[in-house]
Specification:
Elements (H helix, E strand, L loop, with lengths): L1 E5 L7 H9 L9 E3 L2 E3 L7 E5 L3 E5 L6 H7 L8 H31 L5 E15 L2 E7 L11 E3 L10 H15 L7 H14 L15
Antiparallel strand pairs: 1-5, 1-6, 2-3, 4-5, 6-7, 7-8
């Protein structure tokens, strides 16, 4: 799940907060009600997978998918993997919408205006984070969309200009195999398999595919 905060400048570390306090700057901590008690997001068991200037990707606690896990039972249960993924995404979307509403309610209460808001954007599943501002996945906004053909990609080098067609093709193949709902391999194993195939089956490549361009 991704959301944006505006204005952009937000304090994200305790070290930064302590520095601003020493400078006599006014700070506001974000807390909201859960089970009748004011708690921060960690006590809801959300985990931050990735964050930058104004966005966060959070994961919902595994315990919230307990019923889905029981019914799916590792592929031996009463529902298919497609149904299993669909239900997990729906649960996540509902949870993130609720979190957004709670946080925005807190902002409005404290600021007495609608200026500062947290905007829920999308659920990414399945998703892979490879580095800072480098990730890809299947994007779900208003509804579950596991049949989406084009992946949601940010910062991955294979889609940048100036790369050879060989580089792009291998990258696209890796992304495609990772997104396959029937995939059981790790990302590391997929990368090794794709690169091995690129080497042992050289006839699939032409000379032009090795040329880097500026276009």
């Amino acid at each position: 799940m991704s959301y944006n905060l505006s204005p952009e400048k937000m304090v994200s570390t305790l070290l930064e907060a302590d520095k601003l306090k020493r400078e006599n700057k006014v700070l506001h901590s974000i807390k909201f009600k859960y089970g009748g008690k004011p708690v921060i997001y960690q006590k809801k068991d959300f985990e931050i997978k990735y964050g930058d200037t104004d966005s966060l990707y959070l994961t919902y606690p595994d315990s919230c998918y307990k019923q889905c896990n029981l019914v799916y039972n590792g592929g031996k249960g009463a529902i298919s993997k497609l149904k299993y993924w669909t239900e997990m995404i729906k649960i996540t979307m509902g949870a993130m919408e609720k979190l957004r509403n709670e946080v925005n309610g807190f902002f409005k209460l404290k600021t007495r205006s609608d200026y500062l808001k947290m905007a829920y954007k999308e659920v990414l599943f399945s998703v892979v984070f490879t580095g800072k501002k480098k990730y890809f996945g299947i994007k779900h906004e208003d509804a579950v969309n596991l049949s989406l053909k084009n992946p949601f990609i940010r910062g991955i080098n294979t889609v940048k200009q100036g790369k050879s067609q060989l580089f792009k093709t291998i990258g696209e193949q890796i992304i495609s195999e990772v997104r396959d709902i029937n995939n059981e391999r790790s990302l590391h194993k997929i990368v090794k398999d794709v690169l091995r195939d690129a080497i042992i089956n050289p006839n699939q490549w032409s000379f032009k595919q090795f040329i880097e361009t500026n276009a």
